[in-house]
Design brief:
The structure holds 2 protein chains of 2 kinds. Chain A is built from 7 helices and 25 strands. By secondary structure, chain A is α+β, with helices and mostly antiparallel strands. In chain A, the strands form 5 sheets. In chain A, strands 16-17-20-24-23-22-21 form a 7-stranded antiparallel beta sheet, sandwiched between helices. In chain A, strands 1-2-3-6-5-4 form a 6-stranded antiparallel barrel. Chain A is elongated. Chain B is α+β, with helices and mostly antiparallel strands. In chain B, helix 1 packs antiparallel against helix 2. The chains are: A alpha+beta, B alpha+beta. Chains A and B meet through helix 6, strand 21, strand 22, strand 23 and helix 7 of A and helix 7 and helix 8 of B.
Chain lengths: 439, 340
């Protein structure tokens, strides 16, 4: 029911700008609409709706979009559109519905979790197919260039949406195009083309806390994956699981290597200094309780930095995020014992979400860590758990609290999802080692 | 002396063995008998529906000793703990007879009675109660104050103190009523001392372990303290049970039974606690670490070097890899205990 209300609001709010646009010169309006018309007309037979069907029920359990990329019937969609099937090929199967209403089976040939892409094979040759934009990958479109996104939003039928190219997203480890246009659920995996009808990107996500803030996967990743997939055999359950594990391990290895090469920005927190984040990768936010009512008896100043990059593996498993939080706590009128109680409330490892199916239970080591030069004595906790399906990947949560003063302290927290154990130890060590008390 | 009439006392006893009624009957020198039953032609009338109209009689045998005989009742005569019916038996003033649901004892003037007990000055328990009360309530208020991190509210202090008082009064009253029923005296003060000292013990244990766990960096002290709490609780119940006995002399009665009850209580409590924590842990991932921090000046445990900390963190990899292969649907054994 909610879905319809949302859809109605979208439709209604579209009507107003359309009416306003009538004041624009006749000629320009005609030109704009004719481009979209032309693009859609030629694209229509090459679009697909990709459905994940629950085998027992024979009904769809999720939908997305896709597009044909070769005469042999290869198509590109998002990994997250086919992830249910990829996680459990015995329970689900993939199906496409073409523009002419024809249905058929799809098989999964290749996927790229980091870039959220999958290449599927139709059970028949393609009537036509999309070409990738010839400018890709040498140069990208100019900021502001008009792009056309296509797909089947909310299972309402194929649509074309105009939007603009706004460069690549800053501070993202995975390269994503910032597209200002209305991408909705169900359009995932659909193509985004330039006026010349070459594919520039693939619909992948939108920010639900924004308006028309959408993201595309650059087309070159899709072109690479198609090249890799061509002529391959469909993947079975074991091959998929092995491949997911391999990709996750390789991806995090690259990420942590890049982080290792960067210098961490150190920031002052009261008399302490602590590593905040490597400048390029993290989004940081600060908050304080100083102005709360009733007046807090201990102040808490929090800086929280996290990577805006994470990987979707399954609906109960996202991974790859790194979060670093620093909290400086100082007593206003709490005595030593009260401040210790106060501090205990903040001495918690970050919660990373847990699924009995996906993770083992955590194991922790906690102890006092001695002062070392300018680094004050601390009490530290290390909690780690393993991924059941993917060898060599762990979630790690590290939290430490300074123990050099009885009425002020720095709580420093680092959490890493889907990380190799050695990388986690190395980064944790570096993180903790850079906590300082100014003399 | 078989020539004279003999004064015999027939006593009715409670289940606990105290005398609830006493009948003086003279047994004629020869051929006389004392009849006991529900009918009005008896010397001793017993108002028990399970007793026959003519249930038993007491006579003297050739040697002059007293003998009881079942007069052919449906429910019979039982002696002491014997589970078999007795038709006829000699009595010596110590044996307990049971007819229907009534207990009897036959005594004579010559039977020995227990020596006079020396009266000891009664111990004044109220000072102990007062001291324990102050320790408990004062301690509770103090810890509430030391844990106070937000706005100070009176109800934060009054609430726990009031509930402690009410709980102690209710618990003690229940035991006192039970004791009054079973032994005739309520012994409220003694029960109060037991309850207060038990509660004070648990309180002190709680605080000591949470400080010691931090100071010594020993999480098991708080994770497994529930074992000690259940043992203290069982000890309290045992001391309450001891008050149920009528006197010092009978305190040893059913000691084994009482010990068995409290052992079961302790084991049951610990078992239940362990099981419920384990089951709760099956569907969640609780981080097992020492949560409660105390002022850093209280730290006694040696600190690890950073290198040692990360070496021990690194050593967790192997057990994690092992548990990775255990089936997710299976119920693995993983128990870490509770914290504060």
């Amino acid at each position: 029911m909610n879905r319809w209300i949302v859809a109605a609001i979208v439709a209604a709010s579209c009507a107003a700008p359309a009416a306003l646009a009538q004041g624009v010169t006749e000629k320009r309006a005609q030109k704009l609409s004719s481009t979209a018309e032309r693009v859609y007309k030629s694209a229509r037979p090459r679009l697909l709706q990709v459905r994940t069907i629950l085998v027992n029920a024979g009904r769809q359990s999720s939908i997305g979009s896709g597009f044909l990329v070769s005469a042999q019937g290869l198509a590109v969609t998002n990994y997250h559109v086919v992830s249910q099937f990829a996680m459990d090929p015995a329970t689900y199967r993939l199906e496409y519905i073409a523009a002419d209403g024809e249905k058929g089976a799809l098989s999964l040939l290749a996927f790229d979790i980091a870039n959220d892409l999958a290449v599927v094979q139709l059970d028949r040759p393609a009537p036509g197919f999309f070409a990738f934009d010839p400018r890709v990958p040498r140069e990208m479109p100019a900021k502001g260039e008009r792009l056309y996104s296509m797909g089947n939003p909310l299972d309402l039928g194929f649509t074309i949406v105009e939007g603009t190219y706004n460069g690549t997203v800053e501070r993202s480890y995975n390269e994503r195009i910032h597209f200002s246009g209305a991408i909705n659920a169900g359009m995932s995996g659909g193509p985004v083309v330039s006026a010349a009808s070459g594919v520039v990107g693939i619909n992948v996500a939108r920010r639900i806390d924004g308006q028309l803030v959408s993201f595309l996967v650059p087309a070159r990743f899709a072109a690479d994956l198609v090249t890799r997939a061509a002529g391959g055999a469909p993947l079975d359950a074991d091959a998929i699981r092995g491949e997911v594990g391999r990709q996750l391990v390789a991806w995090q290895a690259g990420l942590y290597k890049a982080l290792g090469a960067e210098t961490w920005r150190s920031a002052a927190f009261g008399p302490y200094r602590a590593p905040e984040s490597p400048a390029a990768r993290f989004n940081c936010w600060a908050s304080t309780n100083a102005n709360d009512v009733p007046k807090p008896r201990g102040t808490v100043n929090t800086t929280s930095c996290s990577t805006s990059t994470w990987l979707y593996v399954a609906n109960d498993l996202t991974t790859g995020q790194i979060r670093a939080t620093q909290q400086y706590l100082k007593s206003v009128d709490l005595n030593d014992f009260q401040f210790a109680s106060f501090l205990s409330n903040y001495f918690q490892p970050a919660s990373l979400g847990w699924s009995r199916k996906r993770h083992t239970r955590s194991r922790c080591h906690d102890s006092f860590v001695e002062a070392d030069g300018e680094r004050p004595a601390m009490r530290a906790v290390w909690c780690a758990r393993a991924y059941r399906d993917y060898a060599g990947l762990y979630d790690v949560s590290l939290v430490a609290v300074t123990q050099d003063a009885s009425r002020e302290a720095l709580v420093t927290r680092l959490s890493m999802q889907g990380v190799a154990y050695d990388s986690a130890v190395e980064l944790g060590r570096r993180f903790l080692g850079e906590v300082r008390r100014a003399r | 002396m078989p020539g004279e009439a003999l004064v015999v006392w027939i006593e009715t006893l409670s289940r606990q063995g105290s005398v609830t009624g006493r009948h003086r009957v003279e047994l004629p020198a020869a051929g006389g008998e004392i009849r006991v039953g529900r009918g009005y032609d008896n010397h001793v009338i017993v108002d028990d529906p399970f007793v026959a109209a003519k249930h038993l009689r007491v006579t003297r045998d050739e040697g002059g000793a007293l003998v009881v005989e079942d007069l052919g009742s449906a429910n019979g005569l039982y002696v002491d703990q014997d589970r078999r019916r007795t038709a006829r038996t000699a009595v010596d003033g110590k044996r307990t007879l049971r007819i229907g649901r009534t207990r009897l004892r036959v005594r004579q003037a010559g039977d020995a009675v227990a020596p006079e007990r020396v009266m000891r000055p009664r111990m004044q328990l109220w000072p102990i109660v007062a001291v324990l009360g102050v320790v408990l309530l004062g301690g509770e208020a103090l810890t509430t104050w030391l844990r106070e991190t937000g706005e100070r509210t009176v109800s934060d202090y009054l609430g726990p103190l009031l509930s402690i008082c009410l709980a102690v009064v209710a618990w003690t009253s229940a035991w006192a009523i039970l004791t009054r029923i079973l032994s005739g005296r309520a012994r409220f003060e003694r029960h109060l001392v037991v309850a207060l000292s038990g509660l004070a013990g648990i309180f002190v244990l709680n605080e000591l372990t949470s400080y010691a766990a931090y100071a010594l960096s020993q999480r098991p002290l708080v994770a497994y303290r529930y074992v000690a709490i259940w043992i203290i609780a069982a000890a309290i119940v045992f001391l309450h049970l001891r008050q149920l006995s009528q006197s010092r002399e009978t305190a040893g009665v059913r000691l084994k039974l009482k010990l068995a009850v409290v052992t079961l209580l302790a084991l049951g409590g610990i078992g239940w606690h362990t099981l419920s924590q384990w089951e709760a842990g099956q569907n969640s991932d609780r981080f097992a670490f020492l949560r409660g921090l105390k002022p850093p000046a209280l730290r006694m445990a040696a600190a690890e070097s950073e290198q040692a900390f990360f070496a021990r963190a690194g050593a967790l990899k192997e057990p994690l890899d092992q548990s990775r292969t255990a089936p997710a649907s299976g119920r693995g054994w993983s128990f870490d205990g509770d914290d504060d």
